[in-house]
Structure formats: structure tokens, C-alpha cells
Amino acid sequence: MISKILSGAVIAGLLMAVSAPVVAYADDAAPKTKADCKKAKGKWDKATKSCTLPK
Question: How remote is the C-alpha of 16 from its chain's centroid?
Fold first, then answer.
């Protein structure tokens, strides 16, 4: 009984450790298209085809 509880806690801890960084960085992604960049009020760089968002 105790071993099942401990293994469940270990699995839950591993899942949280793996999923937390993914959720934390989900909002940091810059827009990928010029139109999305303009909507986000960012600055589009033609040379690198990337968007820089204001801070």
C-alpha cells in the first residue's frame, strides 16, 4: 500500500518537473509572421524574418 502511494508521488513529481518549464516558456514565443508581429505591436526585421516585442 505504501509503495503504491510513494510511486504515485514520484510519478506526479516527475510529471510536474517536466511540464512546468514547458508552461513557463509558452508565452515567451515571439510571433512568426509579419502580420502577427504587427498585431502584437512588435518590430518586424526583414533580414532575419523575426519579430522583436517591446518590453
Answer: 14
Residues 22/27/30/36 CA torsion (nearest 10 deg): 130
Its pTM surpasses 0.70: no
Cell of 2: 505504501
H/E run at residue 51: strand 50-52
- Retrieve residue 50's grid coordinates: 523575426
Distance of CA 5 to the CA centre of its chain: 31
**Is-contact 17 11, C-beta < 8 A?**
no
Q: Residue type at 22?
A: V
pLDDT in tens, 1-53: 888 886 776 776 656 665 555 544 545 678 899 999 999 999 999 999 999 98
